[in-house]
Design a protein that fits this description.
single chain; alpha+beta; three-stranded antiparallel β-sheet; two-stranded antiparallel sheet; 1 helix; about 45% strand
Length: about 60
């Protein structure tokens, strides 16, 4: 499931929630890490990022 965020360069960023390995707070917003050293930094606060990622991974009714 893809989740949309705003990147630090103000572009829309789509993230595949099932590929996220680590989420951390940074000065610019929230860094979302994936395997193989890849990451993206988004402007949303960490609580909002985690809620969006978790919501997308929940089974749909």
């Amino acid at each position: 499931m893809l989740v949309m965020f705003v990147g630090t360069d103000r572009t829309e960023t789509a993230v595949n929630a099932s590929q996220v390995t680590f989420v951390s707070s940074v000065n610019d917003g929230t860094r979302i890490r994936f395997g193989e050293g890849r990451s993206v930094t988004v402007t949303e606060p960490i609580a909002e990022v985690l809620e969006s990622l978790n919501r997308s991974l929940r089974p749909h009714d």
